[in-house]
Write a structure and sequence with these properties.
Number of helices: 18
Strand order of the largest sheet: 1-2
Shape: globular
Order of helices and strands: HHHHHHHHHHHHHHEEHHHH
Number of domains: 1
Length: 428
């Protein structure tokens, strides 16, 4: 009992110190977020250590800290833009769904709500921050290195798969499956690719150019088809908004496909059945049938459920082709409709639309830095496309939050002219 009290006291002190840091310095908050995400996605920590022996993980503690910091900022905001108001409406609806779910289903409601808590806490924290371009660039640097870290994990697991090493901890993999990391981990690598890829405007960034090739090839090798589609949609947007950069991407995609295909066939012994599996559409059709069942037969029971959502903890049970399934729907939009209701879904789509429209109307921010408004626009497109077949978590909230923060007036520093950072000195 004494040890537990000492642990809780120490955790409270550490939490207060971290809270003070993340309130005063958003870049520290971003670094903390990436450390937690990489540790969680790579299985680098034993489950008992990562959860402190309790039903609480590092992601949960981070969400509490970010929520407290965002609340402190919101209390000081005199003006609330429309997009921020819509985000807070989503937070209110999710909170209502969690509270009613806990009252009805207990702990199960909290477990089911966790991804949404992580997403909304991260989005609100970054959306309420006023950042300079230097802050964005440092966050972009950490983002890229987080993607590199997960890419290294993928290579380690491929090596373990090729060498028939034991599947444990950071080397865990499924025998015979090249998808050694899941779609949400691969998303982080894809996001890092879109941060680095605009540096192709300058031929002097040789290291970054080949880093982009390696990232894109890794994403292609993972065979997450929904992510492939999201990347293609984002590349189309780039070609429309920045034709010169879009033409450079054509060569990059060809090189990445050749590099990925070479690794697939030579080193990893990719078989014909895996290629056919990647081209199959049966998984998407199966998901669509599950969504239809969730939204109709097993969905809202009355007008209140339709408008404001069913409580978290209601479960995702449905039957598709005679097979019962209890897993998540694999769609951010379907989950929003079921747990936040039509009101929450409309608020989320309207929030995305406002942010996307305002970023699109801004002139291209060439040579302004690493993580510019243009890059956030492309990350937003990837996220919108991927949300059809996957739920979003911390990195999804990060994209939305930083894009919303871009619409706020940046902090002004007296006596300092606006700096335009050449691409060649973008620091990674």
């Amino acid at each position: 009992m004494t040890m537990l009290l000492l642990f809780l006291l120490g955790a409270a002190v550490v939490g207060l110190v971290l809270l003070d840091l993340v309130i005063r310095n958003v870049v520290v908050g971003a670094l903390l977020l990436f450390v937690v995400v990489v540790l969680d996605h790579s299985n680098a920590l034993p489950p008992s250590l990562a959860s402190f022996g309790l039903n609480v993980g590092l992601n949960d503690l981070l969400a509490v800290i970010l929520t407290a910091a965002a609340t402190a900022r919101l209390l000081r905001m005199r003006y609330l833009p429309s997009a921020h108001g819509l985000l807070l409406a989503m937070v209110a609806l999710a909170s209502f769904s969690v509270v009613t779910g806990v009252m009805r289903y207990g702990q199960g409601a909290v477990s089911e709500a966790r991804p949404w808590v992580w997403f909304l806490a991260t989005a609100t924290y970054f959306a309420t921050a006023r950042l300079s371009q230097d802050d964005y660039d440092r966050i972009g640097q950490y983002w890229v290195w987080a993607g590199v870290a997960l890419m290294a994990v993928a290579y380690l697991r491929w090596g373990a798969l090729a060498g028939s090493l034991p599947s444990v901890s950071i080397l865990s993999y499924d025998l015979g499956d090249l998808r050694v990391i899941r779609a949400r981990e691969t998303l982080l690598i894809a996001q890092a690719f879109f941060i680095v890829a605009p540096l192709w405007r300058n031929r002097g960034n040789l290291m970054y150019r080949w880093l982009g090739v390696a990232m894109l090839a890794t994403v292609l090798l993972m065979r997450h088809r929904s992510l492939w589609v999201a990347i293609v949609v984002a590349l189309v947007v780039i070609m429309v908004r920045e034709p010169k950069l879009g033409r450079r991407f054509g060569g990059l995609v060809i090189v990445a496909v050749l590099a990925g295909g070479g690794l697939f066939t030579i080193f990893l012994d990719g078989g014909e059945e895996q290629v056919e599996a990647s081209a199959s559409s049966s998984s998407f059709e199966w998901r669509m049938k599950g969504w239809a069942t969730l939204l109709t037969d097993n969905g809202p029971q009355d007008i209140l459920d339709t408008a404001f959502g069913m409580p978290f903890g209601s479960g995702w049970g449905r039957e598709v082709a005679g097979v019962a399934n209890e897993t998540r729907p694999h769609s951010h939009y379907v989950e929003a409709a079921l747990r936040l209701g039509v009101t929450g879904l409309v608020a989320m789509l309207a929030c995305y639309w406002i942010v996307f429209r305002k970023l699109w109307r801004r002139p291209p921010e060439h040579y302004r830095g690493l993580l510019t408004g243009d890059v956030l626009l492309y990350l937003l497109v990837v996220q919108l496309a991927l949300s059809v077949t996957y739920d979003l978590r911390e990195t999804g909230g990060l994209v939305l939050g930083l894009a919303m923060a871009r619409l706020l007036r940046a902090p002004e520093r007296a006596g300092e002219p606006v700096q335009r950072m050449p691409v060649t000195v973008a620091r990674l």
